[in-house]
Amino acid sequence: MVTEHAAATRRTSTIIVMALLVVLLALISLGVGPVRMSPLKVLETLFGGGSDVYRVIVQEIRLPRTILAVAIGAILGLSGAALQGLLRNPLASPSLFGAPQAAAFGAVLVIALGLADVRSYALPGAAIVMAFLSVFALLVVAGRNAGLLILILAGLAISSLAGAATALAMNLSSNPFVALEIAFWLLGSLEDRSFRHVMLALPFITIGAIILMSQRNALRALSLGEETAQSLGVHVGSLRLIVILGVAFGVGGAVAVTGTIGFIGLIAPHLMRPLVGYDPARLLVPSALTGAALLLAADIAVRIIPSTSDIKVGVLTSLIGVPFFLYLIMRERRALGGGVG
Amino acid sequence: MTDAFLTAHKLSVTLARREVLHDISLALPRRHLVALVGPNGAGKTTLLRALAGLLPARGAIHVGGDALGSLSLRERAKRFGYLPQGHMVHWPLPARDIVALGRYPHGATDPARLSPTDEAAVERAMQATDVTQFSTRPATELSGGERSRVALARVLAVEAPVILADEPTAALDPRFQIEVMKNLRAAADSGILAIVVTHDLGLAARYADVVMVMQEGRLVAQGAPAEALSDEILANVFRVTAYRTGHEHRMIIVPWAGV
């Protein structure tokens, strides 16, 4: 029998191991590219050693990309864990609910209408508003105690709508680089990002993370169902709005600089549950670390997989994520069947 | 009944444009076990939820001298321990963490960091319901009887002056039905007002000080078990006759045949 103490120790060591893994992957990520460097060399260069050329490559060209991979992977993992806690449903995740797709539409709309250039704060602003509206709409359509099937169907509808709206905005836009832009927003990527992009996304991602973390104990109480949580003093209505807001800030901020990167939020909490348990509150930090590790690993992989043109990291996460999702559906088959009513 | 702790005055509830509770007035003191009985759809659960402030209701509810509407959500949570039907747990949390959530209204929002006071309350509740040995077991792996005792422990851990329990004995075997009722009886004897919804007239007659009978959203009888569960009321409300006897100075009632 696992004692209370042993469980707590295992949670702490999992967090430490995951944090170390994120650091290691970040160092590898900084060393991958046309000029390869070992993690040790990267460390040296980061702290001012090595030649000027190496310093420029690591600090100015690769560091923004790595920072974005960590931050965006973390917020996606955190958002997924928070949404799964909110809906008490292991198949919830931002991308299945169409939030990144809607955020991409918001950003595309701003560009297509010529309201702002690609480096303005209007971009994350619009992305956040659309992400919020999409998750809000999903919960309104699906109803309070929706089963898995209803949530997933409503999510499918919303992401299709957002995708169609994005395509329409592209169609109607006078931007000559339409095809390129579509690829950018629909197949998320971390290539060629600068510190401008980091500054654009990071504040919103941080706000989203703080909002989500602040609700962790309420999410735990929600494990007992909405009515019981309410009877324990949790304002379930505001909890729902706050979590959607946190997800919108995080996902909106992320999508505004990378386009849609899916399935990190779905996978990360699942990888952590066997290690840290099912408590939605205790799952948040480990899921964020796992999300960061997953996106770093995927972004390293797209750079070292030999190919004639660049593979987009969003494509890779979907290629891994969708089979995983299918596996989860298989595992949850019974619940899915029961969720129709 | 003097010294009423929980009162409701002309309480009405409308759900989906249908009035499901009509003009219910009651005044209940502490140190009482109250059984709320009535046929399916009589509005028992709705009344319980309205009393706990979980449903919008017309009329006035006072608890401990304060109007329910004037209390914050957290203050309400400290006064009512609410045990819903089916005691659902969505994730396999350890039993002790579930019981510890009973301390949530007191500011103990993290089961891993309980103050000595909260720790003691959790310990007492788990001992009272005899679930200490399940502390680290995931609630979803427990049997129905074990799970319902964990749920009851969670409600006891609130240490609220009022407990509202919705069919806490449903789906339990006879031994655990008796255990749960004994726990609630002990809570009442220690000064709590416990209101228990049940379909088991026998348990109601045996353990309750007061029986309230509901029919179609109205309170149709209220009093000691012998008066509230009279032959006339059983025939009119439940459409049954009953066999009655006594054992150890307690009334035994067994629904016998339909009328």
Jot down its keywords.
heterodimer, A: 341 residues, mainly alpha, ABC transporter involved in vitamin B12 uptake, BtuC, 76% helix, B: 259 residues, alpha/beta, Rossmann fold, 2 domains, six-stranded mixed sheet, four-stranded antiparallel sheet, 9 helices, 12 strands, 32% helix, globular
Topology record:
The complex is a heterodimer of chains A (341) and B (259).
Chain A: H1 4-31, H2 39-46, H3 52-87, H4 99-112, H5 122-142, H6 148-172, H7 178-186, H8 195-214, H9 216-221, H10 226-231, H11 236-258, H12 264-276, H13 280-304, H14 313-331, H15 333-338
Chain B: E1 4-15, E2 18-29, E3 32-37, H1 44-51, E4 58-63, E5 66-67, H2 73-79, E6 80-83, H3 95-100, H4 116-128, H5 144-157, E7 162-166, H6 174-189, E8 193-197, H7 201-207, E9 210-215, E10 218-223, H8 225-228, H9 231-238, E11 240-247, E12 250-258
Parallel strand pairs in B: 3-8, 3-9, 6-7, 7-8
Antiparallel strand pairs in B: 1-2, 1-4, 4-5, 9-10, 11-12
Helix pairs in contact in B: 4-5
Could you walk me through the main structural features you see in this protein, from its secondary elements to its overall organization?
The complex is a heterodimer of chains A (341) and B (259). Chain A is mainly α and 341 residues long. Chain A has one domain (4-338): Orthogonal Bundle (ABC transporter involved in vitamin B12 uptake, BtuC). Chain A is 76% helix and 0% strand. The longest helix of chain A has 36 residues, at 52-87. Chain A is globular, with a radius of gyration of 20 Å. Chain B has two domains: 4-64 and 161-258, P-loop containing nucleotide triphosphate hydrolases (Rossmann fold, 3-Layer(aba) Sandwich), CATH 3.40.50.300; 89-159, no CATH class. Helix content of chain B is 32%, strand content 31%. Chain B is built from nine helices and twelve strands. In chain B, the strands form three sheets. Chain B has a six-stranded mixed sheet with strand order 6-7-8-3-9-10, sandwiched between helices. A four-stranded antiparallel sheet of chain B has the order 2-1-4-5, with helices on one face. The A-B interface holds A 1-4, 7-8, 88, 217-218, 220-225, 227-228, 230-235, 277-282 and B 49, 52, 54, 73-74, 76-78, 80-82, 84, 88-94, 96-98, 101-102, 104-105, 109-112, 135-138, 154, 158.
